[in-house]
Amino acid sequence: MDYLWIYTSIAGALLGAASLMYIKTTKIGIWGYSLFDKVLDFIRDRYGITWLDQDPYAWKKAYPEISSKLDELEAQIKELQK
After folding, report:
1. What is the pLDDT of residue 6?
2. The pTM is what?
3. CA 76 to CA 67: how far, in whole Å?
4. How far apart are CA 54 and CA 58, in angstroms?
5. Strand runs (DSSP E) across the chain, as ranges?
6. What pLDDT score does 54 carry?
7. For residues 72 and 66, is the Cβ–Cβ distance under 8 A?
8. How many domains does the chain divide into?
């Protein structure tokens, strides 16, 4: 009985993660995420909290193939402009 809190905590975390995975693709989930994003943007702009800023190049880490292809195309454009 002393370890019951561990099991309930793990079960709660798993149920919460499963719920988030399901809800994030529904209309209410998308609305909730966009509302949360708007609130964070408001707080960032209102109080100047810079650590809430997103890295403008974060997409390059998420999509390295597209990033490298864009870099190649930009290099070709610069070469053609010369």
Report:
1. 93
2. 0.52
3. 14
4. 8
5. none
6. 79
7. no
8. 1
Range of the domain at 13: 4-81
Q: The tokens of 73 are what?
A: 């195309």
Tokens coding 41: 């943007």
Alpha-helix residue ranges (DSSP H) falling in 1-82: 4-23, 27-47, 58-62, 64-81
| Angle in degrees, CA 45, 49, 55, rounded to 5 | 90
The whole-angstrom separation of Cα 24 and Cα 18 is 10
Q: Taking the mean position of all CA atoms in its chain, how far away is CA 73?
A: 27
**Tens of pLDDT, residues 12-53:** 999 999 998 999 889 999 999 999 999 988 988 999 888 877
C-beta separation of 44 from 52 below 8 A: yes
